[in-house]
């Protein structure tokens, strides 16, 4: 199941961009975004703000700017 694979992938890495998740899981970023939202509401994941040097110019693709961090201890 993709949700389990996503959880495991992010738990192993600690944090990743949406683009990295999409490449690593060979999945559509839009589908992952919905699952990440679900995991965020459950408290398993949090979306981090863009890097400090981002000025919001909109030139970077969203998949690079969206960074997610795993919040649960492994196995929990």
Key terms for this structure?
single chain; 76 residues; alpha+beta; 3-stranded antiparallel beta sheet; 3 strands; 49% helix; globular
Please characterize this protein's 3D structure.
This protein has helices spanning 2-13, 18-25, 29-41, 62-65, and strands at residues 15-17, 45-48, 67-70. The longest helix has 13 residues, at 29-41. It has a three-stranded antiparallel beta sheet. It is 49% helix and 14% strand. It is α+β, with helices and mostly antiparallel strands and 76 residues long. The radius of gyration is 12 Å and the shape is globular. The protein is built from four helices and three strands; from the N terminus they run αβααβαβ. It starts with a helix and ends in a 6-residue tail after the last strand.
Distance between the termini: 18 Å
* Sheet of most strands: 3 strands, antiparallel
> What is the percent of helical residues?
40-55%
Rg, Cα atoms, Å = 12 Å
The oligomeric state of the chains shown is single chain
Indicate the mean pLDDT. Answer: 86
H/E order of the elements?
HEHHEHE
Q: Strands of the biggest beta sheet: in what spatial order?
A: 1-3-2
Number of strands: 3
Shape: globular
Classify the secondary structure makeup into a structural class: alpha+beta
Summarize the helices and strands and which ones pair or pack.
Blueprint: H1 2-13, E1 15-17, H2 18-25, H3 29-41, E2 45-48, H4 62-65, E3 67-70
Antiparallel strand pairs: 1-3, 2-3
